[in-house]
Amino acid sequence: MNYSTKLNALIPGGAHTYSRGDDQYPSNAPSILEKGKGAYVWAPSGEKYLDYGMALRAVTLGYANDAVNAAAIREMEKGINLTRATTVELEAAQTMVDLVRGADMVKFAKNGSNVTTAAVKIARAYTGKKYVCIPRQHPFFSFDDWFIGTTPVKKGIPAEHYATTLVFDYNDIASLEKLFDEYHGEIAAVLMEPATSLLPSGADCTEAAGARNLSPTELNFLQKVRNVCTRHGAIFILDEMITGFRWHLSGAQAYFDLQPDLSTFGKGMANGFAVAALVGPKELMDVGGIHEQGTERTFLVSTTHGAEMTGMGAFIETVKIYRHEKVADHLWQFGRRMFDGINAISERLGLRAYFYMDGNAVSMNYITKDLSGNVSLALRTLFSQEMIKNGVLIPWVAPSFAHGEAELQHTLQATEAALAVYKKALEGSIGDYLKGPVIKPVFRQFN
Questions:
Q1: Contact at 8 Å (CB) between 109 and 102?
Q2: pTM for this structure?
Q3: Which spans in 100-236 are helix H?
Q4: Are 109 and 277 spatial neighbours (Cβ–Cβ below 8 Å)?
Q5: Domains of the chain and CATH, by start
Q6: Cβ(132)–Cβ(146) under 8 Å?
């Protein structure tokens, strides 16, 4: 069966997340997957791949973790979703607020877009201001119009839906301060990720133990943003969809000793189960409450499946495993060896200027450049293609607790073989080696 044709005939984009679409993978990638276990995934025809996509970074313990699945099944057998709030929902709420310093309340949802949009709504309701600032270097905050309208994919979105979203540059505090000057007294919030593979300037991001203590005269970029928000009465929102449950169990904010006003989590918090969360202090979160008589209501997040019992059970069990097994430490240790190992191979092959790992051990990305030093999607496609030939699916790099010594050695061996082809293509013609179309950016104006 041609699964790609069938998928695209039934689903716009061929999948329910654009990052899973055909245009994001080389032509030899499996067009459909059937199952996953640990660090591996299987196609229906039986091909097995060591996976670093890990369900768009949502699986941090490994696919089909027995303890997490058992916890979800226990809740499923109780009914999955009841008429009123459930006991497991209460336990999950307590677990979440206990994880995050300064958090008193939580709202659960099924995806990150819902909770980031809810965070913006709280900021606007609480401050009475309308503008929100985001860094242009951070690729995704929400599928809602207020964000997507700032990308090249504007079709179907009225301009007024994103006119109140302002863009600044990550690691350039002056660009943010400029917005506060231009829109004086009108900015409700700053929303940002703490780190991507682009790391906050002024912070030491080399060890799992956390950033070094900084003197007041050498604040890192995140602390500077915190201070700007405090000075102007804006709400500082930290999007921990990717950094949460990777940098630290309590998020990158714990790693950096940073306290935002609101935080959003998702992805790895329930090892692939659909759970996202918005957390913050009662003063802010309670704008969505119902017991302050006479106050004007804010309709925050109201979802039938937001606290589905299977996801709540999976989340609670995931936290227990993180604490008992020191999962975040493993992610740092494995990631450091992978990061350094791949760079060493590239160096040995004389490719260090054209292929290298960027970022740090838990927030890494592989960079592919042509002989002119320009980032090349064609060469990125080629590397991914060659890794797949060697049994490794690596659209990006998201190690899990299930990635161990055998997986590391497999990865390094596959990298050695892939970069040998990469070197030939760099020195000759990539057309002799690349089979199929070049991958494309998700956020582009035209197909």
A1: no
A2: 0.95
A3: 112-127, 145-148, 173-182, 221-232
A4: yes
A5: 3-64+327-432 (3.90.1150.10), 66-325 (3.40.640.10)
A6: yes
The structure tokens listed for 292 are 């302050």
Residue 141 dihedral angles phi and psi, to the nearest 5°: -120, -30
Report which secondary-structure segment, H or E, holds 311.
helix 309-325
Look up residue 405 and give its two tokens.
């010594």
Residue with tokens 């709504």, as numbered in its chain:
121
> Can you read off the two tokens belonging to residue 68?
């997490």
- Alpha-carbon distance of 131 to 393, in angstroms, equals 40
Phi, psi values for residue 420, rounded to 5°: -65, -40
The model's pLDDT over 244-301, given as tens digits with 9 standing for 90+, comes to 999 999 999 999 999 999 999 999 999 999 999 999 999 999 998 888 888 888 889 8
Q: Is 353 left (phi over 0), alpha (psi -120 to 50) or beta?
A: alpha
- Asked whether the beta carbons of 417 and 386 are under 8 A apart, the reply is yes
**CA 288 – CA 280 distance, rounded (Å):** 12
Q: In which residue are the tokens 């400029």 written?
A: 178
Amino acid residing at 195 = A
Q: How far apart are CA 137 and CA 1, in angstroms?
A: 40
Do strands 187-192 and 131-135 pair parallel, antiparallel, or not at all (unpaired)? parallel
Burial of 257 (0-12, 13-18, 19+ CB in 10 A): middle
pLDDT at res. 105:
98
> Given a cut of 70, is residue 432 above it in pLDDT?
yes
Which residues are CB-neighbours of 230 under 8 A, at least 6 positions away?
236
Classify each residue of 211-248 as buried b or exposed e, where b means 16 or more C-beta atoms within 10 Å of its C-beta: beeeeeeebbbbbbbbebbeebebbbbbbbbbbbbbbb
CA angle 232, 176, 106 (to 5 degrees): 65
Torsion sign (Cα): 74, 78, 82, 85: negative
- Pick the closest to residue 420 from 374, 372, 366, 382 (CA basis): 382
Token pair recorded at residue 237 = 């929102």
Query: CA-to-CA distance for 264 and 127, rounded, in angstroms?
Result: 19
Query: Is residue 124 within 8 Å of 188, Cβ to Cβ?
Result: yes
Contacts of 163 (CB under 8 A, 6+ apart): none
